[in-house]
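Running this now, will post back.
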Amino acid sequence: VQLQASGGGLVKAGDSLRLSCEASGLAVSSHHIGWFRQSPGKEREFVAAIRRNFGMTFYGDSVKGRFIISKDSAKNTVYLQMNKLRPEDTAVYYCAASASAAVGLTSEATYRAWGQGTQVTVSS
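Update: finished.
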């Protein structure tokens, strides 16, 4: 099982970026997929998640209304469209997958497979 996160980079405040999480060894159509982020000195923070069934989505309060999570089952990839980026969005972004959601999709403990992370830096 492998999750490959990509699409990070250096942008200015107000810009947009789209992160991709390409899965191999598991199907995004049968797994819940989450995005988390971590900046230096801070705990890992929930960003967004998409359920395996019906594609219901969830967002952290700090990104609600600006970020959109979606998936393309044919490409076995989940995306995180990030709009109106702010300097406080600067972090390493990780995608993660789980076949179950017993603890809840906003909890790190739910996820069993993690990608390597992609750096997003937003300048003011």
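The chain has a mean pLDDT of 95. More later if anyone needs it.
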